[in-house]
Every structure is written in C-alpha cells, then in structure tokens.
C-alpha cells in the first residue's frame, strides 16, 4: 500500500502583543461588545514592529521539531496569505532558520483555506515518494494587510502560526489524513482581496498611469455579507462530502474544527450539519481570524483543553478568499503535547492564552 500522510506532531506560536476590543475601539471607535456579539472576537494577537510571518513560522515549526526529538524533515511547506515578500517564497528561509538543510521548500497560497490545501499538497508529496517527513506550517502576519483605521476588518483578524509534522504511514492508523474535498470559485474573487501589490496594479502603473495607488488599495477589502453566505454553504457542503468519502456519518464526528472566521459562521455551519455545539472547537474569541493558522491553532487549544483526545474522529473544514474551501477527516493520534501549554495554547489553569518566548 502506498504511504499516506499521518499527523505526528502539532505546535503553535502567537506573538506576545495583544489588542483587546476596548483597545481597538479606542482607536477606531465603535463598541467592544458589538464586536464580540457580531464576530465573536474579544482580543487578537498582533505582530510587533519588525516582526513578520517568517518569524512566527519559525517559532511554531521549531516547537514541533523539538517535541519530535529534533528528527529531520525532507520538506518544509508554508501556507500563508501574508508572505514576508512577494518574491521569493518564505518557506525556504523558514527551513534555513530551522536548520533543516537544503530541503524541498515552498509556499502555498489559498487564503483561509490554505491549511486544508496545504495538508493535501503535503499528503501528495508523501504519496509520491518525494518526502517521508514534512513540516507543514500555517502562519500569518495578516494584520499588516489590514487598514488599522477600518473597524470592520481590524476587528476580525489576528496573527499567529500553527504547525504539524507529517510522516508516511498507512491509511488504517490514527492520524492518517482522510479523503480531501477542495474547491474554488474565482468568479467571486473580489469578495475578499488586497487590490494593490501584484502584477495587475504594477502593470497599470507601467503603462502611462500616473503611478498613484489609492491608500485603500494596499489594504484588505471585504464584502462581509456575501462572504458569510458563501462560507456557510461551502463549508457545510464540503464537510458532508468529506464525511461521505471517509464512510463516516455526522454522528461519528467527535470534534468539528472549522476555520475560525466568525463565530456566527461556525454556529451556522454546525447547525446545518447537526453537530452539537459541545463538539465544535472554538477559539476565535481569544485569537480572532488567523487565516491559515486558524485550524491548527484551534486544534492546539482543543488538545490542551482536553476536548480533543486520541481516538476522536475529527472533521476539518475551511473557507477563504478566492473563494476557496476544503475539508478532510482524521482519527486523532497520540502525539507529544507537553510543549503545547505556553506556546499559544490555552492554559488549563487560567483559560487564557500564554505566549512566551523561548
């Protein structure tokens, strides 16, 4: 039987700097209570000046590798929507800073669905025999792409990184990634976008344009209501398909880990699927929407809180800009967990996030 990708490690990192709703509203106006009620966010972690996506990815990836005993990897894959630079990719620098050597390394870009897309890509590397151990990281310094004076978007997003170690294994063992469901609808690409910075804007400037780019174009533009509707439909549909392909029923799902975009989206998706609230992993209140880092950060918190345990059947699902979406399943394995507390995970004793430098 060909190797399949099996989850063998998990880790996370959140930048120590936090911004509460009260602090945000002091800058942009509005109500802290309204943000929590409409989005589900109470605070978010944000990068400090000079800190970038690569720094967060190295922190999260390093924790996973150390927990795994420092064993080497054949590939480093980074899912991100906020790379350090347009060119080159950020993953090779992450691999270098982690001491991984001249391994295969590249970025994956699928916005908030990036972690699901990246998992599928990594599974393909393993199945094709290109790698036997893959470090896969979802990392974002996305608040650098959000207008700090735009209350609508500034309230939603935060920064962070989550990582998994994948190895080759067999389909019948815990941790094996199940069938993937992935999709996109580029006809709706303007629903969530950063207009400036790419070849389209640069091409206009080079063809007689006066070179001026409106300030707003450098920041995220979001059509919230339309995204909400699309997210609920696509996440529910892809989840059902992934469960069907895995041979599971909805009642088999012990923990549903959906992208933490908006608490109302999570509630609507779980309601459509008929998954009870107590089986839904939720941490958006403490970390906000961290895009590609969202799913692994939610996994970390669920493990530390004791809600996700070995043997549990897990449904993963996400929706993001593009629009893109994806889902997959796995049975949660036995993996090292002692390093998770204090790495951006929820502390059992306080119920709050601790982000410590090491």
What is the name of the CATH superfamily?
A: Thiolase/Chalcone synthase
Per DSSP E runs of 2 or more residues, the count of β-strands stands at 15
User: How many domains make up the 3D coordinates?
Assistant: 1
Radius of gyration: 19 Å
The major beta sheet can be summarized as: 5 strands, mixed
Which shape, going by the Cα principal axes?
globular
Average of pLDDT? 91
Give, in order, the helices and strands: EEHHEHEHEHEHEEEHEHEHHHEEEE
% residues in beta strands: 15-25%
Helix content: 25-40%
What is the CATH domain class?
Alpha Beta
Structural class category: alpha+beta
CATH architecture call:
3-Layer(aba) Sandwich
Low-confidence stretches: 343-358
CATH topology: Peroxisomal Thiolase, Chain A, domain 1
Query: Termini distance?
Result: 41 Å
Number of helices: 11
Strand arrangement within the widest β-sheet reads 1-7-6-4-5
Subunit structure: Homodimer.
Domain Beta-ketoacyl-[acyl-carrier-protein] synthase III C-terminal: 243-332
Domain Beta-ketoacyl-[acyl-carrier-protein] synthase III N-terminal: 106-186
GO molecular function: 3-oxoacyl-[acyl-carrier-protein] synthase activity; beta-ketoacyl-acyl-carrier-protein synthase III activity
């Amino acid at each position: 039987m060909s190797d399949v990708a099996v989850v063998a490690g998990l880790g996370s990192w959140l930048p120590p700097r936090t911004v509460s709703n009260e602090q945000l509203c002091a800058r942009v106006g509005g109500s802290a209570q309204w943000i929590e009620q409409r989005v589900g966010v109470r605070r978010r972690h944000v990068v400090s000046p000079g800190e970038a996506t690569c720094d967060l990815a190295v922190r999260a990836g390093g924790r996973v590798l150390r927990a795994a005993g420092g064993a080497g990897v054949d590939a480093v894959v980074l899912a991100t929507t906020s790379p350090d630079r347009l060119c080159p990719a950020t993953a090779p620098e992450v691999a270098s800073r982690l001491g991984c050597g001249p391994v295969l390394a590249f970025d994956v870009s699928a916005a908030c669905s990036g972690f699901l897309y990246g998992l599928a890509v990594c599974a393909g590397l393993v199945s094709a025999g290109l790698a036997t151990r893959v470090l896969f990281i979802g990392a974002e310094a996305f608040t650098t792409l959000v207008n700090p004076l735009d209350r609508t978007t500034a309230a939603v997003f935060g920064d962070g990184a989550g990582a998994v170690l994948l190895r080759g294994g067999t389909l019948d063992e815990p941790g094996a990634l199940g069938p993937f469901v992935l999709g996109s609808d580029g006809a709706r690409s303007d629903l969530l976008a950063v207009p400036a910075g790419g070849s389209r804007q640069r091409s206009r400037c080079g063809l007689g344009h006066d070179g001026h780019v409106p300030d707003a174009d450098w920041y995220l533009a979001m059509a919230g209501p339309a995204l909400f509707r699309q997210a609920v439909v696509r996440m529910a549909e892809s989840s059902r398909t992934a469960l069907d392909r895995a041979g599971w029923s909805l009642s088999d799902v012990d923990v549903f880990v959906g992208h933490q975009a908006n608490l109302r989206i999570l509630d609507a998706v779980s309601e459509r699927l008929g998954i009870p609230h107590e089986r839904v992993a939720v941490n958006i209140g403490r970390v906000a929407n961290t895009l590609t880092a969202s799913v692994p950060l939610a996994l970390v918190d669920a493990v530390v809180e004791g809600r996700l345990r070995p043997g549990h059947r897990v449904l993963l699902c996400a929706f993001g800009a593009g629009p893109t979406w994806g889902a997959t399943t796995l049975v949660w394995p036995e993996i090292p967990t002692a390093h998770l507390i204090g790495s951006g995970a929820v502390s059992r004793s306080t119920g709050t996030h601790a982000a410590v430098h090491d």
